[in-house]
Amino acid sequence: MQNNQIFNNMQYPNQEQMKQAYQQHIYYKRKRSSELNGVFLSGLAIGGTLIFSLFLQVFSILFIQVVWHIDFQSESSLFQNAFNIVAVDIISLVLPFFLLSLILKKNFQGDLIPRKKIGFAKTAAWVCVGMMCCIGANWVTEFIIALFKQFGYKLTLPEYNKPSSILECVILVFSTAVAPALCEEFAMRCSAMGALRKYGKGFAVFAISIVFGLIHGNVIQFVFAFLLGLVFGYITIVTDNIIPAMLIHGFNNAISVINDILTYATDSSKAGENFASAVYIIWFVFGIAGLIYLIIKKELLPKTKKAPKEPYAPSFGLKLLCLLPGLLIPIALLIYETTQTIVPV
Asked: How many Å apart are CA 56 and CA 93, to the nearest integer?
């Protein structure tokens, strides 16, 4: 039975109550339409930002190739990582998504950068739990890799030159662990997710996790980044603070960085592999402890009471459908880029 039929079939004791009910009916329908229009326009803005971000990355690479006659792939680790910090993280992420936050500033219900005080103990507990979730996401990703291999395909990652000096090791730390943790979390969890939070916190977390996965441009990192996006988004929503997500992001990326540095220092990949295994065990133990602490302190779930569902409120799926048209072009471009990383065994 349609909503209008439900309204027409309802019985009211007097004309005044019927009039009030009808006005309320019209109000909620208009509110529903306004919310869906807002999601649609937000999708267009986020999609345009992603296209602009991709354009800036491509332009930066073409600029150094054509103007400076530099082959990016053949350059040193120092050049590649410095380029990633400046061109990819700062110019292609922070700048476009800061502009997005200005365009959609009316959508924000709080500060652009969530920074509610939560204390050291809670921050540490959330970081430990988040790192434990990173380990779980890594296991899921390994399973996906093995599954593709069973069907005769190999999932590849972009290749970068390994560090060959102490200076290159230092730049690698900033390029892989520090800059992405700051820039990607600002772009995804502060700017993009903040612009969608008014349409539902769970919806914002899920939608931006998809975007976070797609900007990495390959299947392995898409799966891993999507899962981590759910973790980062949830922790940011619950704590209303971006610091835990940034720390988790940085610590997670630092594992691969230290792996490369140990490989350079010892001239053997075995040391890096042993380090990663030991770190996973340590973070898992700390994660269990952090989870227990948050459960005892009743901090694991949002403290805000869930508001009752309004009449005609759009569903999660309908909001996602309204968001997707604006993302179709960047999704198509990123899917194409992703397919190039799948090769037959």
From this structure: 9
- Flag whether the pTM goes above 0.85: yes
The rounded distance, in Å, linking the Cα atoms of 288 and 292 is 6
Q: Cα torsion at 119, 122, 123, 128 (round to 10°)?
A: 160
Residues 194-239: tens digit of each pLDDT: 999 999 999 999 999 999 998 887 888 889 999 999 999 999 999 9
Sign of the torsion angle spanned by Cα atoms 240, 243, 245, 248: negative
- Cα–Cα distance, 111 to 186 (Å, whole number): 12
What letter does residue 215 receive in the DSSP assignment? T
Say if residue 9's pLDDT is above 70: no
- CA 271 – CA 260 distance, rounded (Å): 10
Asked if residue 21 has pLDDT above 90, the reply is no
Q: State whether residue 159 is helix, strand or coil.
A: coil
SS3 state of residue 122: helix
Cβ neighbours of residue 217 closer than 8 Å, sequence gap 6 or more: 158, 334, 337, 338, 341
Alpha carbons 131 and 9: distance in angstroms, whole number: 54
DSSP for residue 74: G
Higher pLDDT, 111 or 159: 111
Q: Are 196 and 203 in contact (CB under 8 A)?
A: yes
Q: What is the rounded CA–CA span in Å between residue 36 and residue 313? A: 10
Report the first-to-last Cα separation within the chain, whole angstroms. 54
Do the Cβ atoms of 217 and 341 come closer than 8 Å?
A: yes
The b-or-e profile of 288-307 (16+ CB within 10 A means b, else e) is eebbebbeeeebeeeeeeee
Residue 102's closest CA among 94, 180, 211, 185?
94
CA distances from 165 to 99, 170, 243, 261, 336 (A): 37, 9, 31, 9, 35
> Would you say residue 17 has pLDDT above 80?
no
